[in-house]
Protein 1
Amino acid sequence: MRKLLDFLIGKRHWFLFIFLEFVSVALVYRTNAYQQSIMFSTANVITANIVSVTGSVTSYLNLREKNKDLLERNGRLEMELLRMKDMIEAMKADTAVFRAFVNDSARFFPYDFTTAKVINNSVSYLSNYITLNKGREDGILLDMGVVSESGVVGVVATVSDYYSVVLPLLNTKFKLSCKVLGSSHIGSLSWNGRYARYANLDELPRHVQFQIGDTIVTSGYSAVFPEGILVGFVSSFERQRDDNFNSLKVELATDFQRLSNVMVIRNFRQEKQWTIEREAQGDE
Amino acid sequence: MNNVIRGISYFVLLVLIQVLILNNIHFLRLVTPFLYLYFIVKMPVGFTSARVTFLSFLLGLIIDIFSNTPGMHAAACTFAGFARPAIIKVLMGDELPDAISPSFKTFGYGGFFRYVIILVVLHHFTLFIVESLTLFDPLFLLIRIVGNVTATTLLICIVEAFNVEGQRND
């Protein structure tokens, strides 16, 4: 008995090693699920406060370019607004009963957004995450969509009171339903873990017409993003193995490496859509 | 007591450097140096296996929490820490006094370099294997391991060369 005890004590670093490895691997697997715990992520107050130091320093670095991007976008939106106004005017003039168009503006638009600052960001892992400086107190909830001024970023995966962690497109767990602008067939966009600028759009039926450089937008089916938000541009394509589908290489519109300000989109009808979808699945 | 304070300040300083600066480096979109391993490298030779393993696990876990990768760094560090006494024994033999820390002076230039590179290879290998459980891509994996091992080893050796505190201590 004594010898056995001596032996066990002598080898105690082995037991410790096996135990700690077990804990680590358990953590890896437990968090491989879509959502992370707040304690082990940058969503908790202590870690978020520390990482935000870098965020607040680097946010000054690209101001010139950011400003240029915003001005450009502003210009584009203004042009669009003018075009829309012009269109409404033309329709008003053409139609005897124009009230229908005017009243349209009062129709309930189910999306709202909050701006947030990126305080921590990674692009070098296979599972990357982005930390934002807004949380539950600012109205951020799980599964809200996140976009930047140039395109889709990801989905909120963990929320604490003041911070939240986003699962971005640059995470191999993330899948986004997308389509080629102008067509209605959807494919599934995912990241292959290699380059921060490219993702793959798979399962797009072969008869969908597109060209290199065409725009890829969100489909709006998922209730997370509104339809038609810019995702990226087709840069090349190849046939998938079974020949009925195309696989497209998509150059992402969002530059994840210099992300600093994002918008979190809230869909007021998300809950309703999911409830009804679950009911439908339950009926089968 | 002095040693404990020194150890804690090493720990805090290296974690801060790692999460605030180095985690934001993605050279060629592939390479992020993991300088925090310097803590495992510099633990005194006399530390027991169990202690080194546990401290390494703690270090890895804290890095994990900051980079949103629960378990990955912890698994890799635990393995590196566990293997450390064996590496030292194989490279330098049993004769080393307990109080010294590995450094260019105590291990010699070649010895220290070999010691660091073996430790870093073990750590990175575990880290990237655990990471690629989600997605396996052998060539990419190999490129990343080689790139990161080079960066981390170089950085650790550079820091060691400039670490006046470590040299004066012997």
Protein 2
Amino acid sequence: MVSRTYKHLAIWALGTAVVVGGCSGNTPAQTSEGSSSTAAETSETGTTGTTGESSGTDDDTGDPPKPFIPGDPVMPRLTEVQYRNCVESLLGLGLPSLPLEPDTNPYLFYNIGAATTVLSELGTQLYEESAMAVSGAVFADEARRLTLVGCNPEADTECTLNFITRFGRKAFRRPLTSDEVDRWVGIAEELAEGDPWQGLRYAVAGMLQSPYFLYRVERGEPDPQDPTRRRYTAWEMATRLSFLLWNSPPDDILLAAAESGELLTTEGIEAQVERMLDNPRTRIAIQSFFAQYLDLSRLDGATRDPEVYPLYTPSLIVAMRKEVELLVDDLVYRQDTDVRQLFSTRNTFVNSELAALYELDAPGASPIAYVPVELPEDGPRAGLLTLGAFLTMNAHESYNSPTARGKYVRERVLCQEVPPPPDDVDLNLDPDDSDPKTLRETLEEHRENPVCAACHEFIDPPGFLFENFDPLGGYRTLDNGFPVDASGDLDGVPLANARELAELLKGDTRIASCMITQLYRHAIGRKEVFTERPGLKHIEGEFADAGYRFGELLRAMAVSEAFRYVGDEEVLP
Amino acid sequence: MSADTKKRRPVPNIAQVRKSGRGISRRTLLRGAIGGSAVGLALPWLEAMFPGRFAQAKAAALEPIFGVFFWANGLPWHAKHGEAQGQGGHPDLWTPADEGPGFTPTQLMTPLGSHPFSVATGLEPKTEVPGDPPGQGDGHMRGFMVTLTGDRIKPEGFDHPSHTLTALRPTLDQYVATHEDFYGAFPTRFRSLEIGVSSARFHDYGHWNNISYNGPDSQNPAIMSPTQLYNLLFDVPDDLIAVGRRARLLDVVMDDAADLRTKLGANDRDRLDAHLDHLSEIQRRLELTSGTCDTAPEPPGDSSDLLIKTDIMAELLAVALQCGLTRVFSFMLTSPATTHVFTNLGVNNDMHATCHAGEWEQVRAITDYQMQAFGRLLDRFAATVDPMGDTLLDRACIFGTSEYGEGWQHSVKELPVVLAGRCNGNLNPGVHVREQGGNISKVHVTMLRALGLETPSFGWNGGETSEELPGLRA
């Protein structure tokens, strides 16, 4: 039995001004606040009272805009992909790729996991072994080591010093201090033992284990124009830009732009962003962001019983993910158009397996060839929420989950938060009811029980809109032998099916603000704090002015104060 | 590098005397050796230098072993789990009818065979469940955290979509591995090993496909790959001079870290300090000439079949324990709330969903299968005999448990508890202790005392107890 109050059930809309009724008992929204919050602390917001001081945002009230006040710095460790990109950038291709500690993704993003998770002892050992392996492979190859070092340390007495200075600047993404130069030259000389190449090899292996390489240390400096604020240094901006746009370390040009101070100006940043967006690495980095924001890893390894779902194959699951990638790439690059169409467009890309699933003619499609198709105007599908990836990863193996699908719409598409079931509530619907019925009818019980209804009223109605799609995303008109009812609603707007939801979402402002919130978390490696919201609001304006083109969002974020300023966290004595 | 072509280093232990960075290090010795001519370090010379050390190392080989065997989603539900479960009318296939020594193992314990084990039944968490913040009552989390840490979860709230679940304090394996009286001044090559079999995870709890924690946001990820485990255990570099350089290099890495340390605020400093501690530990490991296996097993295969993979991982673990590479382990067959699909048992939905769907017979079959895996781990331990005739099971205390009592209602009542092994004669096998509504941390107290660790009490936030379960310790 449940005997507690439900004030904690407040739904709070992240990054939006929307307070949702129905699931909340109309408690004001709770948001994170306080510039001193860290990612770990903000994870506990919504748990500390319900005074409502943070409900809504300024643009609802007509008050003057609140200032942007940045949150504290974080220190993300390189993710596995970033580490490998760094090694490649420093030492080249084709080196041993040893196992590393797995990344974690709190709040969906590996960069947040990288900024909060403590490296394990085994992870430390894996870094050591990786550093020895990659440095060993490079220095075992005489031509390769000469290319890397650029001079012969056996003949040239300045060679070690020059190499350490140059390599260190690239590895640490800033110039070495003179102490650091002494330290690393010193160990190269000590461990040379008569073979200076060997000494350099160990120095490289050591720098690849230094926390200055493995972590992104970005603490900022006083802004000369307003010393009460801290801006990121030019070197830190180079790192921030390159990991945001490339998921890789800065190249020589970016480091030069840092050295010249260019990256301290809006124009300088814009020029670099312009250049960087043209690099193929950006395309990969954008895909990585979308995969995290859309939670696509849930699709990996999804299985279905081939007896029940004859179209199921592991390669179909892979194709579903590929389809989303192609669609994102099309909207962001080929069309360079309003990226919000992701949730409503009738354009997509199918291989022969997906064409069969969607019952489409797709000339030219094969298991490995994807072709662009336009989904039929009178068909059931339009937008991401009618495609295989979403429908499959939010279903059980043998039956649908309108709850999971509805929750995805709330949490992933609209950035609303769905609270957990109350403690001690019976999570199961009556299993002994022998009357045959559709899953939908079974789930209606959620809304008859007042304890469950508080939230399921909020989650299920959009989830029911997808009942025309089975757990593999195939179209159906019957469930358990009974006709499917795919009607539902979103926030009180009645809808007949998922197509109507797609139409409605075209005009939903929450999609853009949600995307910005998620991109910001990904970019900075933590959840935004409340006082950073005005900065995001500003970016949202620029995004809208640019016709919601994603490249322009990246540009707007890169030059925004939300990306260039940092809080003044107290350094421990 | 294959096992048979690789030279194993001899057993003598030089670096063990380098207590916590003081004393003499092998590096010091190596430098002397490199500077001169003798590189091979003769044993008698070392014995002369450190009399008594080798006798001690030999004795250490017979010290107790502590391990956790974890399986997901508890037991098939029955009336003792609560009123609602009773309405299903399902029999209790777990709780033995008779108590005390010589109890008759039940159907679900059959896979544990004739191995020495005891069970405790009726236990549950006693950590307080505050009304606000929510989430403390969630079966998976409350049950998991209390069975393995004796405390609540962190965050002390339920941030469902945010994937931030973590532990407030070390899990039992790490509590033991870092207890100053467990290893004393002579830790093994690895303080602990974390091993996993199924890599299926429950997405809503994010990175929670892991059962070993040091504290908040500090996990010890389980090794899931047999090859990776094999390499870690047996592909130990044997070029002493090169290894000495690697260890020396870490001094410089730590100098960088110490420098960075002065620039950080509280959160990041804690993370960096943990990293620094690990660097010291890796350095110690590099300098350790002992604690390797003279012979390695064949390089392992791999399998998606959980029983076969259990055999593979259990064999590597058993060799590692026998060689003295470690004395603490966690063995995660399946992670909490696992989404593993047991298609081999005719179950088409993932296990967590199968529990929620109330598929009792399927849950029974899966639990039986998971107990078979436990049994196979015990088989391997029983078959691993040292020259004195003792098996690993004679030395070990293995805590077999899950995250809650049962998965249909996620009840944390009637938590499953198995204590396998004789713990060097400190545990009585063949005993069933039943304490309905008893505090789960009494098991922790019992095990810790059996391991020789002084334990006035264990448990936090309402879960504290100074009592142990009667009849289990010899």
Protein 3
Amino acid sequence: MGKTVKKFMEGNDAMVAGAIAAGARFFAGYPISPSSEVAKGAAKELPRHGGIYIQMEDELSSMAALCGASLAGKKAFTATSGPGFSLMQENLGLAVMSELPCVVYDVQRSGPSTGAATKPAQGDLMQAKYGTHGDHSIIALAPSSVQDCYDLSITAFNLAEKYRTPVIFLADEVIGHLRATVSIREPEPGEIINRKAPAPGTTQKDFRPYDYSGNMPAPMVGVGDRNLLMRTTGSTHDEKGEFRPTPENIDRVTHYLMSKIEDHVDDITITREYKMEDADTVLISFGCSVRSSMSAVDLLRKEGVKAGMLELVTVWPMPEKQIRKALQQAKNVVVVELNMGQLAGEVRKYNDYGCNVIQANRTDGVLITPKQVVDALKGGMK
Amino acid sequence: MKKEIVLSGVGGQGVVSVGEVMGLAASLYEEGLNATMSASYGSEARGTFTKTDVIISDGAIGYPNIESPDIILCLAQVAYDRYVDAFRDDTLVFYDNEEVTPREGAKGEHIGFPYRSEAIKLGSIQSANFVALGTMSKKTGLLKPEGCMKAIADRFAGKKKVIESNQKALQRGLEL
């Protein structure tokens, strides 16, 4: 077991600690509320661990620097919020196409545009998957506690390295600024995943930094490697990383970018259940709204309602199996989120069971209360 | 066991620092307790209303905000007025009895001390918040004084004078 230390710390600080524990040694970003403490913490901690912190001129260049650092072999991360996340979308696409492992922390706030800079929201759920153009899949994780901010950071980097993909850490102002008791456990070396390198003795003639024949990424080397030249481009490329826009190649690359994540949904999916065993009323939620949902379940149980909660920790790919199981089990499902119903739309997609799907939304920049969740259920109950 | 504690006052009175010290004391120096703390976050400035919600529990903590406190500290009138309607009969209301005039007929057990004056007597007006923590610790028994002392040293690590004056203030609160 790795060394464990108890702490009372803030979510944003726990994200930095988790990233460093995962082996991240590069941060490029542009501080923005309510994520600024991540940049501050990275600036303080990375140099102490032999890492690099760069404050960039904006979020476009931040994401470009992340791609560059990842291509050079570093585990890299940035932290932002709505307006910055929008600016990162173009180069996030480059990271998808060039298969560059990295982690983008989005500490969500109320939008669109500058919105209400210091207020929480969960309106970036769809943007996390569809913000950058073109068909692709992506991994996004949503923490609901300060403990998650640490533990899931390690998971996020591991998934990024394993599947050679950007991972979105979809936090929010409530969790980012919450302080809580946490156990900071140093991971064992075996718990950390690093990207695969080509077999020793691989020559340039045989080196293929891309592999579209299956559903797992090829080994890669850092740019500047002494023996192998690592080519890449955001344009549709072949196994060597060379531009190849033929119909067959475009088609197989598109299918590959989907299947390398969607085929491994069971490995990537993390969900949690709270009092679900006998539940006929199920709350489905993610991120900060989980906290309100958990308390709402307790309130409902006191009233004799058989309530339970399904927490989606992995939000992309959407945990279809677990959502279907809840819809099959329950008479009423309440989808709890700080937006107008982005997750509710996904849940309804899978509702082949005639389940009554109710929305509990709050969009005034304040965390939804347990009572509001209970009221939403009572208002929409069949 | 679950206690919901609101620390309220105006910007500059250090309610966030007290919340951090309470969270540290519960997390590090008590057996089996968890704490959460959420502070007001926005464009508030020195002199305007501010609050911190601290929840201490021996179980998991769900919703981290407080609607009706078990214990509340009000260091300023604006803070008292903001919360008075949320008091229950069994709410413990700690307040600065030279800065706050309680509302007649208000619910809750009112416990007043001259926190600001006591802090001035100790030579540090900024540590009224820790005089208050001392009185809360003594009256409720929720957090051990030794744990609070250590937590002050953790929170202000590297600032010897600040640690000394805050620990002195805590001690004064324990004696009131």
Protein 4
Amino acid sequence: MSSSNEESITFEYGDWEPVIGLEVHAQLLTESKLFCGCSASFGAGANAHTCPVCMGMPGVLPVLNRRALEYAIKTALATGCEIPPRARWARKNYFYPDLPKGYQISMYEEPLAVGGGVDIDTPDGLKRVTLTRIHMEEDAGKSIHDAHDEHSLVDLNRAGVPLMEIVSEPEIGSPVEASAYLRSLRAVLQFLAVCDGNMEEGSMRCDANVSVRRRGTTKLGTRTEIKNMNSFRNVERAIDFEIRRQIDVIETGGTIVQETRLWDADRGVTASMRSKEHAHDYRYFPEPDLQPLIVDRAWIEELRRGLPELPRQRCARFVTEYQLPQYDAEVLTARRDLAEYFEAAVAQHRNPKAISNWVMGDILRLVRERKLDDALVIEDWPVRPQALAALIALIDDETISGKIAKTVFDEMVASGDEPAVIVERKGLKQVTDTGAITAAIDDVLERHPDKVAEFRGGKDKLLGFFVGQIMKATGGKANPQAVNDILRAKLAG
Amino acid sequence: MPVSLKDVDHIALLARLGLTDGERAALRDDLESILGYIGKLETLDTTGIEATAHVIDLETPLRDDVVRNPEDADAMVGNAPDRDRTYLRVPKIIE
Amino acid sequence: MIRNGPRLRPGAGSSGRASSRKTSMNLSDPASFTIATARSALDRRELSATELTRAVLDRVARIEPTLHALLAVTESRALADAAAADARLGRGESGALLGIPVVLKDIFATRGIPTTCASRILEGFVPPYDSDAAERLARAGSVLIGKANLDEFAMGSSNENSAYGITRNPWDPERVPGGSSGGSAAAVAAGECLASLGTDTGGSIRLPASYCGLVGLKPTYGRVSRYGVIAYASSLDQVGPFAWTVADVAAVLGVIAGHDPRDSTSVPRPVPDYGAALTGDVRGLRIGIPREYFADGIAPDVERATRDAIGVLEGSGARIVEIGLPHTEYAIATYYLVATAEASSNLARYDGVRFGLRRASAGDSLVDMYRHTRDAGFGAEVKRRILLGTYALSAGYYDAYYLKALQVRTLIRRDFLQAFEHCDVIAAPTAPTTAFRLGEKVSDPLAMYLSDIFTTSVNLAGLPGLSVPCGFDRDGLPIGLQLIAPAFAEETALRVGDAYQRATQWHLRRPAESTGNAPGTTA
């Protein structure tokens, strides 16, 4: 999206062409875990949200959460995927203390959905990145390594939390495209309200498969898998580093080893994971405890009919319905919360462009400062959309000036009061009484006879000086248009 | 089907089984004999035969998304051989 | 009306129905009771649940030191259960298992009661949950006497793979009771309870039932919940009862069967009145005899007894048809690939982190801890099967072994579907021999595996299989007749088995320890 392009570095790799595929793990916004009734929320004491099932105790069995399935299907439909008649759960076997059963219930040969794609904007226009697959799986627990020298601690509250893995084809051509893909995908997930898309907190995680090849060739190079990138910015930096590292290795006569590398954001490098674990052999096989997943087609169609408006549709509608510039529409629809905020404000006061300017400016700044990103609950934002609309209405009916409005806005943030109350309390109402304005103008002109003469002698620029003096005298409350009109008449006279 | 000690070591590591030298050799012989017997499956032509992983025809049952935390969460870690408060404690995990 | 079939077998007595010469129920010999006879005595208040329970506990105290069928005796729980049952009986309540002493294989999780699966690796594990079957038995008012010994993680055919010592066969203490539910079978046969539950993955109920002269049923996959049943091979495991008579087994099945929302492979299908299926009438029923089950390797006495039993059923009006199950010879190989592959994954959770045994020395890495724990915690057979299963699933071997086995599983399943187009139930021997001697097959895993040659196909196809006593061999050891029915047609197998018991008296014999007579003598 344009907004991200502005923040991004330009990446150039000369004769080399990067080939990138992304695997996104999105945590589904369910109340309970994927296969048991334990709470999926964070923040409880260690192992407080566990039961025999997510503890992997002997003999207990998984039962699928309907809502998790519903959310994954919605995502598949929103990205244009095909949902095959049958999906199959599979066990991915490996030993790790945060994996209670010694296997993860996932999908392998028969995923929930295939095909589909995510649209991104590139300098060359719209590009659709094809999705290989979407499947569901359970999350692992959390290991804490730094509490002791000799031991690690394990908390299984997260074990069994539902995840959706969205895998793209290796069709992403640059770090910028990678972050554009993630933003676009995140917007879809947020619009569907299936995932909050918070990368910093790990509810949306991304691994990248990166390789490079000479421009003009078609054979894929050996790829590495990059993990541990917890922001859009880090995704760009990590992939950029890895591309340059691979080019350097090849150009100095080396070969790329297929491996997993961890991004170290502090040092700005990727490093090979030299695990003590030996080469993985996950020994996938069909999960005998869960029947093949045959999703009711009527339910799929019902969910399809109930899909909300998606970011790209909403963007197009903002342009036609509100006559917003394409840029504004893209920024506002990059996040569900912003789009909802905007529309809630417009519903109250129909001045879309003014509201758009305020939302993209002061509101977005405020949201970022206060880290309200991704909360998806605009009701909790310090200035509610109705209040912003009321503020803009006060400008539009000339009760206050645009300049005074900034002051009122700051006071709204601080006190939470309605703009009209603040204007009243602080006496910020705009002066439109021509008598009072005329008196102020006369006073200023009387005190600066020399400047009046200069103006009349042709020094037009002095108009600004007079306006400034008059506004100062009225405490900024004089209606600028009225000041302008009367002043010009007086000076002409 | 010959099975080498190296094969035994590899799968024992995958399965996280520690084996003594005596066990390794005995298990190698057992595996070789069992796999020899199992080799009779090779004589069957199964081209195009579907795999049966589940024997009953049943749709996946679905559970409502309702939180039901266990009444006694402490009991969930009560069986752990080593703990630190309610955390499970294991030898240091080295990445 | 109760219909008695013609009695053709020389072993059949003068009266069809369970009673005749050995009837008087005798509290000093709990094995003299069936659920049915105890039920009527309890309901008529001629006997209290507490009296019955005390009699059973006395028996346990006397013979456990030599028999070792139980890993735990839950005496105080049993007396409390009995008192509760007496209170309900006193209020005029009744119920199939109200006040009936039962034993659970120690593979069923029991809340607050140690559950070991006969493995060192579960030493000290006390589940904070009950298995569905344990819950249903408790709700029905049965009396829990204890947890039965088994082959570690249900892997074995002789009960010699228990980490806590072998169980002896009540009919001959030098013989195995069969496995893996050997403790559950021995407990009933020795009068330590009136019924018990086991699990059957490749024959683990039917084989010990056959070796111990009992009725044992492996229901259709999905009929009884697996929730809380420690998994060996999840796509094959199924829970089922042991008792002296088909009628008793039907009564227990009626209690434990039914849908459980906690088991995604549990089938939401109404539970029929199994007792009502026991009409005694098998006239016109088509009984299929698979020619592959009477091949080389079957002991002559076993073949004779099985053929005689088929003759009894024919005499009762059933039609005998010869059928083919052509892929039978591949069943053991297929079973050992499917079962061990699943087991290698199911047993990964025993890692010394959340419960059970941990073995680690100072300075051990995580991988060392895993390997030391699992080395110390698992017995030889469990390790063997984990290795085989890991191998079958590992990169490069999956297609040749595991996938191939799933394909052959399809062929075996089709064999049965085709056979059931020509017959209503299949009759065959349960096992090729009677109970073998302790230690006889311990050093030859493959020979041990072949004990299950007639039972594993049924698990691979998910079908119900019933083993009914059908005679004794020249050493006085029991022989079992296996009746295999289509999926969810337990009623058919039970009806045939019950009709057979009405026509014969094999199920009235009791082993010497319980009767005071020499092994194999008729009581």
